[in-house]
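Q: Sequence in, structure out?
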Amino acid sequence: MEKVELRFLEDLIDAPSPSGFEAQIQEIVRKRMGAFTEDVETDVHGNVIGRLNRGAPFRVMLAGHCDEIGFLVQYVSDEGFLYVQPVGGVDLALMPGRRVYVHTKKERILGVVGKKPIHLMTPEERKKVPKAHELWVDIGVRDKKDAKKRVQTGDMVTVAEGLAMLGKDIAVSRAFDDKIGAFIVTEVLGRLSKRKGFKNVEVAAVSTVQEEIGLRGARTSAFGIEPHVGVAVDVGFASDQPGAEKKIVGDIKLGGGPILHKGPNINPVVGQLLVDVADRKKIPYQMKAESRATGTDANVIQITRAGVAAGLVGVPNRYMHTPVEMISLKDVKNSIRLLEEFVCALKPGMDFTPRA
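A: Exactly. Output:
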């Protein structure tokens, strides 16, 4: 990964972006997309859309959501402890003892999620997973008055984990789900902007919002773009770790290539074209069966307006929705290559109607 790309990824990870609070990360996306095209807009929902060849006879949408799971401050106790509400599917069992950041209008405040010492816990308490309203954040103040000078109800809280490398290829961080998707669609836009003779397809690369609470940004942006083809880019469950049941999840390895899919959420023509392009360009990939609507932006893209030919490209991810999500940068690179070549294989007039 080039230095400018790595810096872009680091900036995405560093920016707080719980669902509904994506403004900071979207400013970073806008700047990066602006290096590739002057046609960048932000809609009323907060989706950032970078376009190439606006007005071309065929439209393709690439969507990666930039929002992450996190918390919002709900209540400040008399002692100055912050009680929070989760945003999205937070694994509450992992939170006690974690360092977190509280993001206010003026500053980023380091805090910790408090926990009763194990010495003082009963055997029953030791087995218990805390409920959301039982978690508190300690920012080291004396009382409610001091806390209120710095923190307001509704301030964002994120886990204080950034990007780190385990060797040259394996990366760990919070929120690869799905900041890596927003990264990929942006970098695909950049590569396509340099392709000569690429004029007959309009490309809309979208950093979507509010996926973690209901796929909301993809729904509204797809309605506005009205693409012929829409491909979501998200993370997928890697099964090469203890406890992962391959009979349920499939046989998916970190570093094995992007995940492609078959199932009712995937237009069969789009799905086959992704496979054909990968085979032709010798890009490694892994197949996964999806027997129902996926929990990704591909779900709502597919059923927008009169229907969109939808596809899904996944980046294998260990430890999803934890502070230490793990991916391979080889899979990221191959996802970018695959999507670039896939878009270049699209032609006006292509028929995506499923046929026997």
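DSSP finds ten helices and 17 strands in the chain.
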